[in-house]
Amino acid sequence: MNKYRTKNCGELRKEDIGSEVKLAGWIGKNRNLGAMAFIDLRDEFGITQIVMENRPEFEEIKPDLNTESCIMVEGSVVERANKNPKMPTGDIEVLANNITILGKCKNVLPFETNSENLANVREDLRLEYRFLELRNEHIHNNILLRSNIIKTLRNKMDELGFYEIQTPILANSSPEGARDFLVPSRIHPGEFYALPQAPQQFKQLLMVGGFNKYYQIAPCFRDEDPRADRAPGEFYQLDFEMSFATQEDVFEVIETVVPEVFEKFSSWKVDKGPFVRIPYKEAMEKYGIDKPDLRNPLIIEDVTSVFEQTEFKAFQNKTVKVIVVNKRPELGRKFFDNMSEFAVNELGAKGLAWVKLDSEGNLNGGISKFISEDQKQKICDITNARPESAMFFIADEFSTAQKIAGGVRIELGNRLDLLEKDVYRFCFIVDFPMYELSEDGKIDFNHNPFSMPQGGIKALEEKDPLEILAYQYDLVCNGYEMASGAVRNHDPELMVKAFEIAGYTKKDVEERFGALFNAFQYGTPPHAGAAPGLDRMVMLIAGEDNLRGVIAFPKNKKARDLLMRAPSKVGEEQLKDVHIKLDIEE
Question: What angle do helix axes 534-542 and 247-265 make, rounded to 10 degrees?
Answer without folding.
Answer: 40
